[in-house]
Specification:
The protein is of the alpha+beta class. It has two domains: about 180 residues, no CATH class; about 220 residues, no CATH class. Helices cover about 30% and strands about 10% of the residues. The chain contains eleven helices and ten strands. Helix 6 packs antiparallel against helix 7 and helix 7 crosses helix 10. It is globular. The relative contact order is 0.13.
């Protein structure tokens, strides 16, 4: 199989002068204002579609108990129960009831994230293909009654549209040393998401189970202030909490890693989409040189992320993912005629065998501006060509060939020069 990367040499490139444009202050986009009008947008995400079905009586949820309602909601959203991860830091709108005695469970697929804490509310974040994450909160369930009402929430923006997400609607995860009450005593990582974060800086305030083979992680502990210092004490799953209140007793390493990768992809792509829309609005026509330089920088960042150029180092013994989650995660793998897929797991030295993100199959990527995708594909091609330069050479030769084949067989929006 030949890949026509010779066309790259003739593909229109941006001038050196443009690429050396004077650095600008980070752009701040008001997502509430034109041309975005986020709060006025009629959502088209997975959960919004489910809501419409429920209103028409086409879907019914089991409301006999909190756990039954949660399980039926996950089923209708096509979110595997095996994706469960648990956090006990006092986060979300329900911080007053989340702590080491009452962890919050999170479940997710490629575009929808559901959080629930015993005694609390169900919260959902669903990726709208145009506007990015939409936030929903259910009222409390009355067991045996009708399904609780649900509303879009603007309160979530206090955290989900701050510095961590470049002041745009986004997904966040933190790593903290927490107190008995779940409040933060120390911060290990904040305002950044993605698979590039060293594993030893993740998982603070989270439960971590399974064959992770990590020895210096921050999971499963809390701090007790003592004589001006924080005494570190264990908080193993179920040590202080009743795990029978949850659908599973686990918080496996593999869904943790997949979740982090998706957060990093979604936030970078949403930032790129909003920036493109803003630039078109401001320029009222062909983008100026400075705008093109900004787009180019964003495209380079996305291409590096999509191809796992900066993925964090794995433990020497690799990891072992939960078999149930592995099965569920691979359930919708898109394979080539030779049997290769972007979802194929490695887990020895990295997450995936073929380092190119399966998140390219999401609706958010499919609906992204054509001009943006064209530039991202161009920079991906620099990583995937037969003889990349030093800046684009982290992929192995055979791996690059396989990735090119997977993309050509499973993607429908590649630019003509890829063929």
């Amino acid at each position: 199989m030949r890949f026509s990367f010779l066309l790259l040499l003739a593909y229109p490139a941006f001038s050196a002068a443009l690429m050396a444009a004077e650095a600008q202050e980070p752009r701040v986009i008001d997502f509430r204002a034109p041309p975005h009008n986020y709060l006025d947008w009629q959502p088209q995400d997975r959960f919004a579609r489910l809501q419409q079905k429920a209103l028409k009586g086409e879907v019914r949820f089991d409301t006999s108990s909190d756990k039954a309602f949660l399980a039926s909601l996950l089923k209708e959203l096509n979110i595997p129960v095996s994706s469960q991860i648990m956090v006990f830091s006092a986060s979300s709108l329900q911080s007053e009831i989340i702590n080491p005695r009452n962890p919050r469970a999170l479940y997710f697929n490629e575009d929808t994230y559901l959080g629930w804490v015993p005694g609390g509310l169900v919260e959902i974040i669903a990726a709208d293909p145009v506007m990015g994450p939409m936030f929903y909160v259910f009222n409390r369930l009355r067991p045996g009654g009708p399904a609780p009402d649900v509303q879009r929430s603007a309160k979530c923006m206090n955290c989900h549209a701050g510095n961590a997400t470049r002041r745009l609607p986004g997904l966040i995860a933190e790593s903290l040393l927490v107190s008995r009450a779940g409040s933060s005593l120390e911060t290990y990582r904040r305002d950044v998401q993605g698979h590039q974060i060293p594993l030893e800086l993740r998982f603070g305030g989270w439960h971590l189970t399974g064959g992770h083979n990590l020895t210096g992680h921050k999971a499963n502990v809390m701090g007790i202030p003592t004589n001006g210092k924080n005494e570190i004490v264990p908080v193993n799953p179920g040590q202080y909490s009743d795990l029978s209140l949850h659908l599973l007793p686990t918080s496996d390493i593999l869904p943790h890693l997949i979740h982090e990768h998706q957060l990093g992809f979604e936030n970078r792509l949403v930032h790129a989409i909003y920036t493109m829309r803003q630039l078109k609005h401001e320029n009222q026509g062909p983008a100026a040189a400075a705008a093109k330089a900004e787009i180019e920088e964003i495209a380079q960042e996305l291409a590096r992320y999509i191809t796992f150029a900066d993925e964090a180092k794995f433990p020497a013994k690799g990891i072992t993912g939960d078999p149930a989650y592995t099965r569920d995660f691979l359930g919708d793998r898109r394979a080539t005629k030779d049997g290769f897929s972007l979802k194929d797991l490695d887990l020895k030295t990295r997450i995936f065998k073929h380092r190119c993100s399966y998140m390219l199959y999401t609706d958010t990527w499919k609906e992204a501006p054509k001009e943006l995708k064209e530039r991202v594909y161009y920079h991906m091609a620099l990583h995937l060509r037969d003889q990349p330069d030093a800046r684009h050479s982290h992929l192995q030769p055979g791996e690059r060939l396989i990735i090119r084949g997977i993309l050509k067989e499973t993607m429908s929006d590649l630019p003509p020069w890829w063929r």
